[in-house]
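Anyone have tokens for Cupin domain-containing protein? Sequence:
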Amino acid sequence: MTDRAKHETATPESAPDRVDPSAAKNEVQIGGKLKHARLRKSWTLRQVSLAAGCSESMLSKIENGRATPSLPTLHRIAASLDTTVSALLSSTTDDTSVVARPEDRPTYVVKDQGIRLERLITHVDGNLLQGNIHWIEPGASAEEIVAHQGEELGYILEGEIVLLVDGKSFVVGEGASFHFRSEMPHAYRNEGKSRAKILWVSTPPTF
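Reply: yep, here.
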């Protein structure tokens, strides 16, 4: 098993949902979209697994809704299929809408990792910005290092996180902001006792 594969965990049926259950209404089911993207590319599970650095069995579970990939794993799979996380998390919402109300925004929930991603900007080909709210439960982390093209800006709405950028660690609390080039390896974790909530904007929408 590769080091990357160790980060991929099937969601236990008996495990408690560590994220706000209200997110379920607009939760994006990513498995079918990944399978559709793979079939459009005419790739096998093995081809995707080799390109994305994860196991065939895990990919099969993800496609069939029996496992939830971490955000870095999802990014690698999307890149191998010549698409982006932004495109995969898109919904049927009118892409010409100026306003995205809370009850309409799609979300991606990593159930067994205590992380929820709430989309703020509807995916449209040609958009230069990507915006999300990251909800991070106490003890949750996205510590699998990721790097990609672009630039990122974050603002801590609630709580506190430890931000890892280019080998350095920063404690970032409510009201603080951060900015870095996306090519710099980055990750985060919540070591506090309360949920963290981050407004996160990046460009271009490669993630």
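The chain has one domain: 24-203.
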